[in-house]
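job 3f2a | input accepted
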Amino acid sequence: MFDKFREECGVFGIYGHADAAQLTYFGLYALQHRGQESAGIVASNGERLQAERGMGQVNDIFTEPVLSRLPGNLAIGHVRYSTAGKVSINEAQPFAVKCSFGQIALCHNGNLPDASESRRQLESEGAIFSSTSDTEVVLHRIARSKSSGIVEAIIEALCEDEGAFSMLFATPRAMIALRDPRGFRPLCMGTLDGATVFASETCAFDLIGATYVRDVAPGEVVIVDEDGVRSINPFAARPTTHCIFEHVYFSRPDSLVFGRSVNKSRHLLGRHLARECPADADIVVPVPDSGVAAAIGYAAESGLKFRFGLMRNHYIGRTFIEPHSKARDFGVKVKLNPVKDLIEGRRVVLIDDSIVRGTTSRKLVKMMQDAGAHEVHMRISCPPTIAPCYYGVDTPTREELIASHQSVEEIRRFLGADSLGYLSLAGLLEAVGDPGDQRHCTACYTGNYPTRPIIPGQSGDFANRTTGCRSANASHLREKS
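job 3f2a | predicted structure (481 res):
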């Protein structure tokens, strides 16, 4: 069973560039870490949308002949790791449909927990779905809207949801970007040679030479068309609850996420961890790649030597993606191998970003011991993970999370480590620049959800389910400068 939280998805879009599809390909390449199951691009030549989707990774799907079928100066793209629905080409995004508003395409990072209920209602009224994705529900709502225009229809379709959604829409002549009012998932905005660009992370901007301008604000809708860029705020305000795990694990360290350097946050995670959980040891070894920045911070704060004592094979997928149990049994050894001359006879502080089930961590501890480590002290750069996420991350059930039902000492014994230490929630919040816990969702560490989630297999609904709109008519909404 996978022993990390699975990524969600990544989105990228560009308006106003002659090489829109090619640049979207590069943008998705930079966001590949956010999803490896499928990828897709929809482009417009100003008259019609053209879609290309496939299973697998970006460079395998988008060959030169495929990209040549995507002309135009507007494109949106998506990399997927399923958090809802099946794994097939039918679920690959962007979705593209034709309705009374004309052609429209949509890609989504997040999760709409009440989509199942909405889907059942739509099906009872005669709607036909082509996928199991929660995202398709949004398109059905739009198609049934009586609003005067596509922007108004999108707003109406999403007013009912208290879920997590960072979305990009494309029509033949416009692009629309938006985030849910709580801002669970990241979405940033930039420019390139006069074109407007959107992406889940700024590392995608770096690859194509775009300039980061700002984040799309929680609850903001940005419309880009031949009249320029305009912004409206149609959703009722909600407290900001950014996913704190973006800084712990999901995002690339070279990105800005929620306006903050991921590398800086992870370095500070390590420094705080060293203060809270020191170890009488010789070297600090990261679990690559997500544990590297925290391990550097731990070593700097503790004065211990930093060593790359585990080497990663970058030519395989992440361990938890392997679909067969036999592959997972040796997946850790395929992916990571100890450098014995650095490990042997030494007391090792092993730094990782999280423990989910504990199975991978147990194998890593044994790997260090088999390589001759005198002691192995496990240190985790976040608090114990005790609760699943319902906002766009595919996580195990509460029962499968080892920290939900075992103490730190019990987990240590299961891992076989000489000691085990987790970063405190206060230390985590301090490291991400939010010591007062005013801007982040920390439900996976506390069990305190910012909304009442619909749990699979249980009946129920969101408390205060309707997000609400300030107005159903976008012409009456305040525009940002």
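job 3f2a | Confidence is low (pLDDT under 50) at residues 318-325, 459-467, 471-481.
job 3f2a | closed
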